[in-house]
What we know:
By secondary structure, this protein is mainly beta. About 10% of the residues lie in helices and about 55% in strands. It is globular and about 50 Å long. Residues about 5-20 have low confidence and may be disordered.
Amino acid sequence: MITYKKALLAAVTSLVLVTMTGCGAVTEKWAYSHEPEKEIIALSDNGKAEYKGEKYTYTKDENFISLKDKSGEEEKLRYVMNGDRMTLYEKSTYYFDGKKDTEGIVGDWKQDNGWSYEFTGDGKFSEENIFFGRYTIDEENNCIRLMYDDPIEDAYLYYTLDGDRLTIDYPWPMVKMGS
């Protein structure tokens, strides 16, 4: 009888543990550093992810988190780890404001929501017409370095340029939740 009770207790304990952890425990939960209580991305050890409220499967290497939705569409999010902090790069698309008659990123770029960048030919930039500074381009890595006039840390934006469409991978500092 004691052996039966021990076996039953072991089975119940195992069932409780499986129920608590599920088929894939969430191993990473991240929030923007400016909103540390609001989860943005969660990654489970079973290859499932949730990003901004949407469910995905994912793979992760040393540079990218690749999210795949139910229809098979894939989105690659660049990330960089720095200790227990992560910088997550999110894509934003800007459109040239006016007729494109300049080379590269020089000119005014806007989004439908009003966000904007202006890049001049002499290496100056304006972000949202609020933040100003100088920029350099690393063409080999498709990276723009923004060096702000204000005491703000330099930002590195990865980009692709397709005619009058500029897609920027913008860096967002993240904090791990539950740490």
